[in-house]
Every structure is written in C-alpha cells, then in structure tokens.
Design brief:
CATH topology: Rossmann fold
Bound molecules: NADP nicotinamide-adenine-dinucleotide phosphate
Distance between the termini: 53 Å
Radius of gyration: 21 Å
Largest sheet: 7 strands, parallel
Number of helices: 9
Strand content: 5-15%
Shape: globular
CATH superfamily: NAD(P)-binding Rossmann-like Domain
Order of helices and strands: EHEHEHEHEHEHHHEH
CATH architecture: 3-Layer(aba) Sandwich
C-alpha cells in the first residue's frame, strides 16, 4: 500500500450508512483514503470515518446536500483542500418521492431531477477536473427501476435510466483522459431504503411476494453491491467503461410465469427438496 499521504482518494456520496458505508470500508481495506459524504447523520458519518481509519486508511467527513449545486461545489473544494487529489468518484446517494405518476407534483419532479441526475452530472464534471493525467474512475449507483416498471417508482426509475445513459456519454467524453465511467444497477438490497419502500409506502405489495420469485431467493446485501462497485473502481477493471453492471439476484431476467408459482414435479425439478425430505436411501452407516 502507498503511504496514506500518497494513497488514492475516493469521494462517495451518501456513505454514512448503507451501500456507501460498506464500500468506504472496502476501499479503506485496500489503502484508499475516503471522503465520507452525508446529508444529516453527522454521527453516522463520523462512525464510518472511524472505521475507515481503523482499516488503515485516512479520510474525512463532508456534509453536503447534493440537491444543492453550491453544496456539491463546496464538497469537492473540501476534498481538494484536504487531499489535493481525487481518483474515484461514486455517485451513490439517492432519494425520491414514491407516488403514482398522477400524484407527482412539480416540486417532486424538480427535486427528483436535482437529486438523482443533476447531482451526478455536476459531480462528474468536478471529479473529472480534479483527476490527474493518469486518469480515474467514476461509478453511479442505479436500480432496476431503470429497466422495468413497478408501483410508485416512475420518478426515480426514470432518473436512474437517465444516469445510465449519461454513463455512456461520459465514458466517451472522459475516455481520452483515461477516466472510466460505469453504473452498478441494484435489485432489492437490504438497507434502510428497502425497509422504507416496502414498509412505509402505504399499500405497497409485501416484499416476500418479490423475494420468492428471485432465482437466488434472497435480497441482496450492501456487501453484494459494494463488491461490484469496488471491482469497477479497482485495478483489474481498467478497460471497462460505459457499462451497467446488474447486481439483482436474477430479478431482471425473469418473467411470468414464474418458477416459484409452479407445482408438483415441475416445481420439484427446480427447487431442492426440503432438508427433512432428504433422500434416505443414501444414508450410510
Ligand atoms: N436499497 C436498495 O434496495 C437499493 C436497490 C438498488 C439501488 N439502490 C441505490 O443504492 C444507492 C444507495 O442506497 P442505500 O439503500 O445504500 O441508501 P441508504 O442506506 O438509505 O443511505 C442513504 C445515504 O444517502 C445519504 N443521502 C440521502 N440524501 C442525501 C442528500 N440529499 N445529499 C447527500 N447525501 C444524502 C444519506 O445520508 P444521511 O445518513 O445523512 O441521511 C445516506 O448516507 C442509491 O443510489 C439507491 O438508489 C438501493
């Protein structure tokens, strides 16, 4: 590892908790200094920073509401002042109103764009300016609402699709400066946001109705997502750019009728028998 003062630097928006925090700790473990952005939870951001330091890297916390362009500028200025360099930028923080399209008001549409698309573009502009001649990495975190439609997710899903298209344009424009730009697209990932979506949006379908259909049969973890992002930020991914890497347990490759809804022998052909029904003819001894 390089000495802390010469180590690469990553800025991760929304790394006080969830996927951003797990990613911060993964990067720290391989010697990357991390700027931990948050909006409200200063205490959680300080905890992330303490864990980054315990993992052997350095870092800083930086409060910024990424809906505000002035806050975005101040955030990059603070990283420049503290470390004098930037090697990786991860546009991870997201928020939106979850409502049917018929109920979306002007302020919902404007705030959604500012939070989930504009902040990525403004951040990538600043990040690319700060990256040295040897290049850098940019990753945006998106979700399967960019690919398929489901209740109340129109606003955020459309923003994630826009971000994935920006990834392709940025990859072409920043490529000559050896900066790669990619997206990591998540399915159901077990964080506070997932809990909010299924348990706090009135009338939402039960999470179990979705999980049961997934080929891998479980929600993803923050670690599943952070591992994919870490790969795209890492030394072995230098020739990958303009891509969206999907981390969803198979959610976006299935269609009705679902294997989970089959019965009898057809069902048994795919689903392993329950442990209690194990084949007793093979018991030895
Ligand atoms: N969870 C899922 O099921 C799932 C699935 C697919 C994709 N994703 C994507 O993964 C990314 C991370 O989601 P997550 O589930 O890890 O989130 P999370 O656990 O809810 O954490 C959200 C993070 O974003 C920060 N944040 C929120 N609003 C902000 C703002 N205006 N300015 C700056 N920071 C802000 C929060 O800071 P404070 O702590 O200060 O509030 C926190 O650090 C998002 O892009 C999300 O769309 C999530």
């Amino acid at each position: 590892m390089a000495p802390r003062s010469q180590a690469p630097v990553a800025l991760i928006t929304g790394s006080s908790r969830g996927i951003g925090k797990v990613l911060a700790l993964k990067l720290a473990a391989r010697g990357v200094n991390v700027a931990v952005n948050y909006k409200s939870n200063a205490d959680l951001a300080e905890e992330t920073l303490a864990e980054v330091r315990a993992a052997g890297a350095d870092g800083m916390t930086v409060q910024a509401n990424i809906e505000e362009p002035d806050d975005i500028d101040a955030m990059f200025d603070a990283v420049q002042q503290q470390f004098g360099r930037l090697d990786m930028f991860v546009a991870n923080a997201a928020a939106s109103a979850f409502k049917p399209i018929s109920q979306l008001k002007l302020h919902h549409l404007d705030r959604n764009w500012a939070m989930n698309v504009r902040s990525f573009v403004l951040g990538a502009q600043r990040a690319a300016e700060m990256m040295s001649a040897s290049g850098g990495r940019i990753v945006v975190v998106t979700s399967y609402g960019s690919l398929a439609a489901f209740p109340t997710y129109a606003s955020l899903g459309a923003a994630k699709a826009a971000a994935e298209m920006y990834v392709k344009y940025m990859a072409t424009e920043f490529g000559p400066r050896n900066i790669t730009v990619n997206a990591v697209n998540g399915g159901l990932i077990d964080t506070d946001s997932l809990d909010f979506f299924y348990n706090r949006v009135p009338g939402m379908a039960p999470m179990s109705s979705v999980i049961s259909k997934l080929p891998l049969g479980r929600p993803g973890t923050a670690d599943d997502m952070a591992s994919a992002i870490d790969f795209l930020l890492g030394p072995t991914a230098g020739y990958i750019t303009g891509q969206t890497l999907t981390v969803d347990g198979g959610l976006t490759i299935i269609a009705p009728p679902f294997w989970a809804d089959t019965t009898g022998e057809l069902h048994d052909a795919v689903y392993p028998p329950a442990a209690s029904g194990a084949d007793e003819t093979h018991v030895e001894g």
